[in-house]
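Fig. S4 source data, part A: sequence.
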Amino acid sequence: MIATERFEDFAANLQKEIEQETGIRFGIVEKHQFAAIPIVKPDGSVGMLGMAESQAIFDYLGAQGLVDDKGRVKDTLRTAIKDGTLTLPPALTPHLQAVRDVLRKVAGSLNIKNSADRVTIRARQAVLDGPDFKALWDRIKHKTTYRVEFDNEKLIADCIKAIANGPPVSRARVRIRKADILIGKGGVEAHEQTSNSATILTIEEGDIVLPDVLTDLQDRTQLTRKSLVRILTECGRLTDFKRNPQSFIEMAGEVINRTKRLALVNGVKYQRIGDESYYAQELFQQKELIGYLRNTLADEGKGVSR
């Protein structure tokens, strides 16, 4: 692909193409998005929130105008997450922090700048006419095109290889410490027993309840379940998942996301259009430069410089 439009437009169109070709969905809240949130059941056992509650959260977000009918994130949701004003129905409020963490990964960032901080940056002619700047400008002034090559099959193969060569996953262990509980009018106090050292026990694989690894990794990586099934079955590390599910999921999610970033960065190629196609240095006199105070440094008597 050769980009002929602005980078912002090209990035948006590329995202749409990736979604169509690979099934990866960006900025979309799925109905099952919250089903794998861990909870403590009334009997003390650990389980998952479940599809019914996940559907209820999804419906609530839609009713509040935070996502559209297809689950696409709106700026109102990003603002609510940033301002800490996100709420849930009373019955689901205990899970607010976990839901917020999931949505923060899906929603992305909201960059809001204060218009009162805008300043006009005056060009310093002495710097523009200096030999150092002219030498730099001669290197960066040429107009270029760029292309992004993204091979989904290569991405999956690279993820398989990276997980196969990833760090080892040790067995799950639990540390047991004893404490005395004192209940009085002032409340409840706990005092650890200093005479007893902490006991560390290794959990046997048969005693571990395996979580929904596909849903968890899909939330972390935004890959399709089909792609994740291939990666997990061909990486040869499912035994590690049984040995320590949480440690394996964290390792696999980090490896996949790192591989994705490298695939996109390595796929960007720039090519000069020609020696006669370049930006003139007079651009600094013809165009007004605008900056924000938090991103600029004041140079007394010499204007504002980046």
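Fig. S4 source data, part B ends here. Residues 119-148+276-305 form one domain.
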